[in-house]
Amino acid sequence: MPRLEPDFVLPFALPPEMIPDVAHSNTSRPQAEPQDLAPLVPGTLYLVATPIGNLEDITLRAIRTLKECDFIAAEDTRRTGILLNRFGIEKRMISCFQHNERRRGAEILEALKAGARVALVSDAGTPAISDPGERLVRSVLDAGFRVESVPGPCALISALTASGTTCDQFLFAGFLPHKSGQRRKRLTQLLASPATVVLYESPFRVERLLKELVELDPTRHVVLARELTKLHEEFLRGNPVDLLQDWQKRPRKGEFVAIISGMTGAQTPTDVSDDMLVQTHLPSRERSDEPDED
Length: 294
Ligand code: SAM
What we know:
Layout: E1 44-48, H1 60-68, E2 71-74, H2 77-86, E3 93-95, H3 101-113, E4 117-121, H4 134-142, E5 146-150, H5 155-163, E6 170-175, H6 180-191, E7 196-201, H7 206-216, E8 222-226, E9 234-238, H8 240-247, E10 256-260, H9 284-287
Bound molecules: S-adenosylmethionine (SAM).
């Protein structure tokens, strides 16, 4: 089956024949007639995961939720608008991003009180995973309303599961801090765990990460999962020294998840403290794809 276009944010249209017709017709829902499907529940916040590159990864339930909710709170209404457009969904949107999440939260609570069914989406992947949503979920739950997950794509899970590294236990640490001292401390803590470490990393900091790993423990097995679900998806595997050599011949492009094998054998420290389980909500300054300042 041909892939859909690699990045759904590209501003040109998908050929109509490549858009799954689930968006336009109930008849293509497998094994469920419309009357069998539970209607959305009033007073509920739906966390809707969206594709991280390949539009085929949207779920039937995500489409239905986005179609049937009363409005969508989106990290970036323009990006989500493009996604909705591709699936023929017309829906009112409000923006809900890191810097207005608190204010929007109050508005969303008012709407839930009035019985609204609200969908929250981030730019790509699962809301609240290194994306806005966590604060909103807490305030919705604190106010006594329902939160429902509409699961789907998540870069960390796609990367981890295809990496070949153990998935038995892992520490997801989102984006590392930018500041050298904090970053080194964090990485040192993470590497002291026997669990596989999963990080999100901007292409501008992959080289820095590899150099840090060369210094801290060149024996680790590292996997860089690049452009997952997109046309140029690839997995770069090796120790930090080899990967660094390879990296230096490459353009700094694409989205990356870094998977680092856990500490093994006699070196394994006994404790992983709770505060290592982990910060996915660093300020946007630290999440951006900008090059480092320091
Ligand atoms: N909420 C999203 C999720 O569920 O994965 C993550 C959002 S976070 C702001 C964006 C980061 O996720 C990127 O910088 C990259 O590290 C990772 N990421 C997102 N899409 C990716 C992809 N297609 N391939 C590799 N990494 C990806």
